Amino acid sequence: MILYIVWFLLKHTYEFLNKNNKENISTVKKRSTVVKKKIEQLEEKFILGDIDRSLYDKFNMKYRTELSQIEKEIENSGETLSNSEKFINNSVEVCSRINKIWCSGDYAQKVKLQKTVFPEGVMYDREKDEYRTSKVNSVIELISKQARVLESHKKRKDDFFVNLPLLVAGSRIELPTLGL
Length: 180
Hints:
This protein is mainly alpha-helical. The protein is 73% helix and 3% strand.
């Protein structure tokens, strides 16, 4: 049950966070298409002799620079995953087995897992003999919060059933009465 809830939350969080990214990528790709068309038209005009070499060089450099900037934007936008469900399923599966992965993993796997869970690292305070971290992976944090919420609901439900007998009136023997 908890895994389904975590999966559901991750899926909707991923979709929410990437909605704007998809729209931005689409807009940038359209701009790229427009600039490529301008370059083609410029080359055609030059070949046909409608413009001279200096004009061609001037606008060709302008359009190529613009296209290069657009391609950098596309590269930096972090194109969305083609199979987000596979990514989410894998994340939930890894998180559900994180303890086993840590215990059975070699040094390299433990370092990779630690960097995944604590992207900014883990620090040790000698004076207090405590480990500290400034940031936890957002997926792990989401799962942890959801697990605490579900655990508190489960505890309240368990407390209700444990205390249920106290809410029921005690039984006693009553004499039957006829015709009240």
